[in-house]
Amino acid sequence: MSDLQAIRLNVNGVTRAVSVEPSASLADVLRQELRLTALHLGCEHGVCGACNVLLNGRAVRACLTLAVQAEEAEVKTLEGLSAEQIAVTLKECFRKFRALQCGFCTPGILVLAVDLIAANPDPSEEEVRDWLSGNLCRCTGYQPIVGAIIEAAKRLRGAV
Amino acid sequence: MAQGSLIGQSLPRVEDDRLLDGAGCYIDDVALPGMMHMAILRSSDAHGRITALDCSAARLVPGVIDVFTAEDWPQDMPVIPMRLIPLESSVPFLQRPLAQGKVRYVGEPVAVVVARDRRTAEDALEFLELEIEALPPVVTRDQALAATGDALMVPEVGTNISAQYQIGRGDIEDAFARADVTLKKTFQSHRHTAVPLETRGTIAVFDIAAGKLTIHGASKVTFFNRAELAKAFNLRNDQVDLITSDIGGGFGVRGELYPEYYLAAEASRRTGRPVKWIEDRREHFAATNHSRDVDCELEIAALKDGTILGMRGQVRADMGAYIRTNGNVVPAKAGQFLPGPYRVPAFACEVLALVTNKTPVGTYRGPGRIEANFFRERMLDCLADELGMDPAALRMKNLLGAAEMPFDTGDLLPNAQKVVFDSGDYPATFRKLLDECDWDAPAQVHSDGRLHAMGLACFNESSGGGLYENARISVAASGQITVSTGSSSMGQGVETAIRQICADALSMAPERITVALSSTTLLSDGVGSFHSRSTVMAGSAVGQAAAELLDQARGEAGRRLNAAPAELDYSDGVFRVMGQSDRSIRLSDLSAMLSDQGGLDVESRYEQAPLGFSFGAHAAHVAIDPGTGDIEVLDYWVVEDVGRVLNPALVEGQTIGGVVQGLGDALYGELVYDDMGQLLTASFADYLLPTSTEVPDIRAVATGDYPSPHNPYGFKGAGEGGIVAVAAAVGNAIARAIGPAGDAICQTPFHPEKILTLLHAAKKGKQ
Predict the structure, then answer these.
(1) CATH among 3.40.50.1980, 3.50.30.60, 2.60.40.10, 3.90.1170.50 for B31-135+195-287
(2) Rounded to a whole number, what is the distance in Å from the CA of A19 to chain B's nearest CA?
(3) Contact B221/B487 with Cβ under 8 angstroms?
(4) Does position B346 have pLDDT exceeding 60, yes or no?
(5) What is the least distance, in Å, from the CA of A72 to any CA of chain B?
(6) With b meaning 16 or more CB within 10 Å and e meaning fewer, what string describes B245-261?
(7) Is A140–B657 a contact, with Cβ atoms under 8 angstroms apart?
(8) pLDDT tens, B476-509?
């Protein structure tokens, strides 16, 4: 039982004061304290990617990030991305390509794809597959996810 | 909108909106007021006697509110029963929720800690003092057969054989006497499991004052689980509710009646608080059902022209330490499906189930079929080589044709349930695959320096098991229709399928229909989601309930419109008197008028007809690097006749997803134990799953050529055809690619070092 530490987290554009144990993961704090449950915990050792969130715009594993490490950063979860054009377009394409089944990995993959398209607006299939290789999906076989991300990038470039 | 017009359309998924918004509600997203958290002390020894278990220090940890062990259970601990293929000889090997006196596998629950949060509960496990006197661990099938004394799982039984029986058909001695060629080989399908991305979890709320037990996070077989939990806690069925939630993948392993349901319920009963349990990934690998782990000695008899006369052999399944609810399915189906979709006039097989000191086995997508298809299809390629035949031609010669349907398979199951292949023209469907993949038998060294080859595999697959399914449809005064079935969502689109069938049967827009599946509060009874049965069984039940509802509504509408029921037209939720469009009444108005009788609300039970069998074939193109043994699957094709296709996009998604799971199982994931029965692969660092960079382009074709005659829609299951022949097709492709050395490709998984060893050995042999 360690002492709680008071920190301020900037999550989805709102600064929140929370008391956390120094060893608490960002994932646990977001899910349990802030009730932001779009991110999921699939392995808690950084392999599956279901807990991806954006930290200063880059996708990171919330299960491997301590909440206290995120104090100075801008944290975005899928909930906070919902109104943004990249996420809106990605969701349309995920729907069209049947890029989800059980949906458990989906929020982590959407967050990753937002980062990908922001970094590389015109990714090749190989680049998408390379980025996506850090996320596990047990249902779809990845094929429709790759298609959806490429299509979303195209739409966002105005190429469709 | 006419009835039947929605069947065959790729309607969008109902599930997508909430899941894409991150608004899905999985079990760990549920938080109840006053909720406590449970952690489980699990055995770290494979086999031993519990000589001491001191909980006193753990009880003193701040935040811990309860600790209990088997000795604290208020009466005899319940035995977790067999749900499928219950065999008398397996009864002594059933599990109880907590270890009593002995531990039998690494991961077996021994004690429970309940605390104010999960971290406190898990940390407090360290304060439990458990002493175990080691007993000899049994970790292989041969050790299980040889075990005596202390190595026996239950010494009083005198054997580690939990089931042993013969199946077969035809005159096997005669078949082998008449053969021009016989071949004998030993095959093995390795231990692995489904690995859904969401681990298991539950919240139990035992309200003693109200006499009510509620289990959240249920799935798969809610009504069976309710009845058993009711028995275990001396409650009536109506005092127990199982509530379903979103599910992060089922694939057969989730939702069975596991020890943890009992433990959470007991924890809640003792503490009077809601108790949550969420499995962590390491725990998942040791506690959730493993699967496969079957070997087979197989012998085939054939004529020179490739006509198969007979097959005989022995199937031996490593069941792990206990027989779980569906464990016996694995060896039973491995035996039953050995002859596969071929004529095989004579067949004889001994089925053996053996208990060992490993995690218990249960079903994982394609249970027994994966194994049987691998054994048989590899054998057929070896036979083709022996006869100098093209593997496609050999298969074509022996596949069952349309004129042979229905085909009685004989007595291939221990409970003597008669199994008949219902329909199909297997050679015609196989031909479609050969055309699709542009089949080319010879292996070749490609300009990239790698060894390239294609491999084939055929299978057929039963669907729609389970004796019945219930569906309930109710009409609200607002016009909203709610449909529920006993089958639950396992994350693969069942809600979409059920809504589509309901909308079709009521000839109305799908948007007007809400789907609420499988919580026991929604219907009086039901069976569940397994054996590719949800669309077949629950779908048929929905169609039947809709017909009954419309029948009842038509009578009421006639009374209120002063017309004979036969004079009424029905479409889109409205009855109209024929030729008089001003005389009409809506379903919703009828339901409101009948509100004193509960409105329009029909629950219907659809009884099982004989099973429907899909048939399909897979082709794989692999390339092997002769320097490293690295295996790349470059292309993959599946053609499957799934009867009438409800939603082509859903079926395609199932097939492609299944293939990729199968590729991971064939090439990567393996549950490895050491000699002491320690599980060595209990994290994603050690148990590898396929990622986006390892999987090829997959072409999946579902044909609707041969609808099943046994259900009103003609559906056959489509959930397992993608996975069931992957190990077989990839194994055959690898074997062809590496030439004569490929004869030894008899075991999964196919790892590069094994390929390299075979290539080196072949080279040495030549010199």
Answers:
(1) 3.90.1170.50
(2) 15
(3) no
(4) yes
(5) 25
(6) bbbbbbbbbbbbbbbbb
(7) yes
(8) 999 999 999 999 888 889 999 999 999 999 999 9
Residues of chain B with CATH 3.30.365.10: 291-464+610-766, 466-607
| The token pair that represents B293 in the structure block | 């782990």
Look at B22 and A38 and tell me if their CB atoms are within 8 Å: yes
All CATH 3.90.1170.50 domain ranges in chain B, comma separated: 31-135+195-287
Closest by CA to B62, choosing from B124, B9, B105, B109, is B124
ipTM: 0.97
The pLDDT assigned to A106 comes to 98
Closest C-alpha among A47, A89, A16 to residue B686: A47
The yes-or-no answer to whether A5-80 and A82-157 have a common fold is no
Mean pLDDT (chain B) is 96
What homologous superfamily does CATH list for A82-157?
Answer: [2Fe-2S]-binding domain (1.10.150.120)
Size of interface A-B (CB pairs under 8 A): 166
What does the block give as tokens for B177? Answer: 């006497």
Q: Which of B194, B197, B658 sits opposite A136 (nearest CB)?
A: B197
CA distance B630 to B643: 38
Q: Please give the CATH topology (third level) of the domain spanning B291-464+610-766.
A: Aldehyde Oxidoreductase; domain 4 (3.30.365)
Which chain A residues contact residue B15 at CB under 8 A?
A: 103
Q: How far A1 CA sits from the closest chain B CA (Å)?
A: 8
Report pLDDT for B767. 66
Nearest by CB to B249, from A31, A98, A104: name it.
A104
pLDDT class of B763 with cuts at 50, 70, 90 = confident
User: Do B683 and A91 make contact, defined as CB atoms within 8 angstroms?
Assistant: no
Question: In this model, does residue B3 exceed pLDDT 90?
Answer: no
* Of the partner residues A31, A98, A128, the one whose CB lies closest to the CB of residue B653: A98
Query: Tell me, what's the pLDDT at B660?
Result: 98
- Whether A138 sits inside 8 A of B661 (CB atoms) is yes
Q: Which fold, A5-80?
A: Ubiquitin-like (UB roll) (3.10.20)
Chain B, nearest residue to A41 by Cα = B198
Tell me the nearest-neighbour CA distance from A103 into chain B, angstroms: 5
Band of the pLDDT at B450, cuts 50, 70, 90?
Answer: very high
Q: Which of residues 110 through 149 in chain A touch B, CB cutoff 8 A?
A: 110, 128-130, 132-146
DSSP, residue by residue, B91-139: GGGB--SS--SEE-STT-EEEEEEESSHHHHHHHGGG-EEEEEE-----
Q: How far apart are the first and last CA of chain A?
A: 56
Cβ–Cβ gap A101/B698 under 8 Å? no
- For the segment B169-189, what is each residue's pLDDT rounded down to a tens digit? 999 999 999 999 999 999 999
pLDDT > 90: percent of chain B:
93
